[in-house]
Amino acid sequence: SKLTSLGQLEMTWKSRVHFHPLLVRVLHKSRLRYYGKPEKKLDMPYQAYFEVADGSGMMSMVLWNSLCPEWYNSMKVGTVLLLEQYAIKTSYPFKTQPTPGDSQMKRFATIEISLNVRDPPTKISIIPEETVKPEWGLPEVKYRFITRSELDDLPNNHSCDVIGLVTFVGRAERARKREHGEDFWLYRWAHAIDGTSDQPFILELFATSQPDVFEHIHPMTYLVCTQMRVVRDLTENPSSTIYLTTSNESQIFITGWHKGQPYTKDTKVKNFIQWTKTQSEADQMKKTVIGGYYPFPRPPNNFLKY
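Above: the chain's sequence. Below: its structure in token form.
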């Protein structure tokens, strides 16, 4: 009964120590971050960012340390949370910002909600979707799906969501995070078609915190990738080297994982499903490829240019 809103929190947080419970919906979810160092004796040095919203706007929420293995997988995009005994901190200024699906939504960027095991010990409850009441005024999850025919007109670094039928998936490759560092990023290339163009989406998929999905991307699966960024080479021929890469907030879903996801209500997703019903599976199977080395963007045709 005694709830507060994100808008009220931003106005009153400096004058309070204890805060009323919050009722929010998860709109975005970052990958899990490990920040352990050999000299620091932390049991579970993990951190994950979420963007949560209520009727008043959107704010960042940070899940810390041992709460991550306990809660990270349960807090999906679209999940409704009741938060009690949380802390409020000033925002970390250098974190990545997802692009909201609803451009009208107010963003509270000065503070963030901090969820810890102690000081104070946060109490988290997940509210089942069927018991969520319309009068709570929680926003729906909105997406920015694009078709392949729309991609060529989008600017570099534009944020979008895509759905397609996988026709190619490459082997997992590694790239160094820093030139002489020991850490690597793991990624793989994939192609997906949606029937709106002769060209596929070319997708650079970095391993997110969903290894069970990343490892099972196969040809002929329906692939959904959210919060992707457009990358185009503005120097050479711009149309030939346009591809999409994952961001810190990207989520990837394949056949078997779509049930109950909020994007299933999206018009472009429904259109794609209608298109797949008109396709012959045997014909598409003939065009699919898996594995092998995929150099992209392609090197120039002659050695002098190279």
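DSSP finds six helices and 16 strands in the chain.
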